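Q: Can I see a sequence and its folded structure?
A: Here is a first one.
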Amino acid sequence: MSLNFPHPIYSQHVLQPAYADAQTYLFEPMLAAHEAHAVMLAECGIITQANAAALVRAVAAIRSEGVAAYTYHPGIEDLFFRIEGRIIELAGADDGGNLQLARSRNDLGHALARMALRTRVLAVQEALLRLRTAVMTQAQQHLTTLMPGYTHTQPAQPVTFAHYLAGVLTFLAHDQAKFAAAYATINRSPLGAAALTGTGFPIDRRRVAALLGFDDIVLSTQHAIGGGEYLTDVAFAVQALAIDLSRMTHDLLVRATQEANALRIDDSFIQISSIMPQKRNPVVLEHLRARLSRALGYAQTVVMQCHNIPYGDTQDIEDEILPPIFSALDAIEECLQLYTAVFETLSLNVEHLRRQAGEGFTTATELADTLVRATGLPFRLAHKVVANMVQTAVQAGIPSSQLACDQLQTAARQVLGHELPIDAAQFQQALEPAHFIAVRTGEGGVAPSATTAVLDVLQAGWDADAQQLASQRALAVRAEAKRHDALQRLQAGG
């Protein structure tokens, strides 16, 4: 027994959710695309100005009615047909029926998705800029804040918090570039490709692109319909940022523990225990870790949905891909907003970190370097002498703060057979974390002057990224003004 379209289960699980997504993301882009297409058809002499004017008046009426007036109706496949039906009602069958001339749902659908996506990608870029500002502020405040640096999760060498954050700012800048590149891929118009092969009418694809704020067109009409890289580029950018942020989150969680006592998450992000009165749980970082996993999952769904499908028109990269890709962008933007608030309110236990910076023999490298500079000893032998001294101290339970030059000379006699021409003052200076920091002035180094230079470069990058984002916003404003002017001329009779 055959049922009428749509089967109620198909309607429930496919058509209605897709319709709701279209209402959320595609309503205004669709109306703008209808206006631009009508203007172009008239300018190219494909339809009369009167026909085009009737179309744009109908679109204006629909906009004034609002998206809430266009609820799902069983038997109407999607929002496009719902809007087209209303345009025909308002403009009449003769004029309204020409709206889809030289166009298909295929090229229109991809255009609307691109228009909706670019708005969300710009919002993520703005949120990323705000986070970079908050991190930069912390970095500039902590150029001399000593702390242990870690390799393999163990104390390695003294660093500053600013030096660590310069690394964070570097990956954030790289991730910003990935979103900017994704935006450039997105912001190309597929309109004019029609179903797949273009159209026999003498349309102007670039005029429509300009009226809708696209930077360019997707030149190949095959790729305009079949290409999915504008989707995967967004997913890859989300994944890269989520992975980078998750690694930083791990560090923050460890350093916020009572044992580490390195940093303090603001009370506004702290939750308590229902049974343990002493607990101060920095759960915002746990929520962030979980939401980054969520963003990664949504982004990976996008990638997998683009895998092993036909290179052409297919629902896998149309209606079905909107939920995961917008969910990925929503999740990563939420994370960026939360991280910004965390960094704006973050405080450090500066004195405790200063003490920790020299514990665990973290300045041993500088002592070996000092032996090279002061005595001419080859580095590998200097390394061996210092390693012998450290191993002996560890076995004897002597902390790094109680090391003396005599212990170094004992190690030198054991390794080299003689003592080294180095005095107690040189020895003690070499073990000072502040000295360790001060002498590493090379490009990218941990010295405050070197870190400041890195931050200056990163700030210049921020300025350039902000300018690029402003230019992208301005292009959209100019396109809307162009379309508005074209609509006014059209309705005024040219």
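Q: Show me another, different protein.
A: A second, unrelated one:
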Amino acid sequence: MTGETKRALVNPQTLKGFQDFLPEAMILRNQVAQRIKSVYESYGFLPIDTPILEHLASLIGTGGEETNKELFRLESPENEAVAMRYDLTVPLARIVAQYRDTLKLPFRRYHFGPVFRADKPGFGRFRQFTQFDIDVVGTESVAADAEIIAAMCEVMRAVGICSDDEVRDFEIRINNRKLMDALLQGFGLRSMELQKHVLRVIDKLKKVGLDNVRKELGQGRVDESGDPIKGVGLSPDIIEKVLAFISIRGSSRHGVLEEVQKHLSDSEASRTALSEMRTLADCLDALHVRESEALFDPSLARGLDYYTGPIYEAYLLAAPEFGSVIGGGRYDRLVERFLDVAVPGTGASIGFDRFVSALEKLGKLPAQAAVTKALLITLGDVQMTDVLGCAKELRNAGIPTEVYLGEGKAGMKTQLSFANTRRIPIAVILGEDEVKAGKVSIKDLQAGFEQRAEIKDHDAYRKAGKSGQVTVDRSAMVETVKSLLG
């Protein structure tokens, strides 16, 4: 730059643990989100949104010590301690308390939005990621948990993941925190912190395996990096009883409960937990949730501290490397953080980024669809006012329309190539002669895509590319485009 101070350029890059989504990816994400939204609304869930930033006091301590470490902490212009939300459930608890005179309980909500955790980035793990939640707040009824699980199954089917008694493409594993509490209390282990430690260790089962869980329930172990991991300190006989409990399996939900009962002491806590799970099993049967879709698994723990009852996770069996793609449970004391009355709640959250990645791997993403349905292109000396007038007319008729605004006098080939790249199905062509005659040419590009897909011969390919075009009066433009879009 002669005679000027050279300007330092900023390197364009995303932060570590964050990601961009370009239009093609966003269109697919929006289509998947719309399918999920349709399921949730069919169950009566209502949309809400909350700020990304919350007061630090609202978030700290709600998810356990590990979650506290992962909070993105900031300071507001008023010098208030704030943090970026790490999930969508704690903000819901705050909303229920803050708007208790406005919201009618029980309250069903869905919420789609980004959350933030200062975690170590890795495969499928980001510091900003999107969650899609449903919750029912204000009822202790186990039927609410059953409806959450049934909606999770419906979501799987809505995105093309199927499951039946012979072929299982997904499974939802279900447990109850009260069952593990009853087991440990039966051993005389009543410390809340000790119980939470046991649950956190069991939650690692799929990641570290049974032997490492055994060591960590005892005196501890050394991880792969050589760092020591503190053990719970249980005696060997109690450890084996815990491992036997979490290894229980059965051919039916009620069958699992029969086996679970054999491992529990006869106590009020045991009877309460078993009664809840039997009711849940009956409700799932009433909702026609197959045994192959939703099964009881005593090894399921989930790491967050605020769960108090039934918990659940969904897995895609053909993509196990993605882990749990939907998870949730009952949290009957979370709202008490903000309100001096008990407000029970239950819900589930889809890890949306992980879910979409898994669907892509399984070939279950919807076919790429264009947002724009008609592209207006010009040939010769055509006034932009004529082009914009056509665009307005098409948009008024509910047809998403784009005007080609490329620099210079682009030819027909360039403009059609632009439409093909964007998968735009219709081209409305305004030529100089057509405009004078009050006509437009309309080309069915989608038909051309399909017609040419199997053609190998070059001449036949070019000939097919020239077909599917009609010239009509300007007054018939809208109806012709509608007809071609079908």
